[in-house]
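Morning run. Coffee first, then this:
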Amino acid sequence: MLSVGEKDTIQYLLNDNAMTFKGRYSVCSNPLCTCCNIDFISDNRNDQLLAPEVRVSLNVKAKEAAKLHTKSVDEHLSRQIVNDLTNDDWQFLARLFLDKKIAYTDQADLGSLDIPFPMDEIEEEALLVSYNGILPFTPVITLDIDGLKLKIEDLYCVRKGCTCQEVNLIFSPVNNDNIILPFMSENTEEMCVVYNTKKNEWTLDNIFGLQLNPNDVMSKLSNLMDINSFFSLRHRQFADQESNPWRRHCHRYIGKILLEEIRLSLFR
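And here it is:
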């Protein structure tokens, strides 16, 4: 049984109350990191079954003990806790993890995010930048259409000197099992709409496998938010400025080089 107290403390009753694990929990503060690990540092000075301080680390995406290979982590206790956790416990931990990562993302200093990539690739291949690809723990935009829950990925052009005001909106069904990093799941069904923020107009680019009326979808999205202000602001964050740190990040470029590695480590 898991319960959370004040100041990021957590208590876990292991093996039918045979041992109580009390302590602090934390996640990586880097908003770009997708390690999906949540750490617990115990303070069990009154519990004879545990050392004064013990650290365990769990991967909430893989639902297993984190593979850190560091002496500071009690791998045996980590595996013991993993074997004792229920699906509800993992859902609980996933929510703790996401809430923390979302908070770190909201507080992030954009100038401190430094993942270099060659702009030549973007210039030559006209690659688009995904907002959630850069900040993976920004809450994914979702939309309900007649009982079908869709997630929306917004992609932008950041080519030097380009004055386009377009955003590509990719609508695809939400995979309820993919709570962590849902934007990175593979889509066999999707609809792409190109929205022009300057003209406040949109056109259908393509649609695969979805029985959707694009007019209904865009109307529903417009009722949910001020799409012009929302996507214009995000586009400005990718503005063509030499000092703009966002120009050093690109999900599509990272995807070409690292996506298979990420999928192997997190999603299989």
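Residues 119 and 248 are 8 Å apart (CA to CA). Good start to the day.
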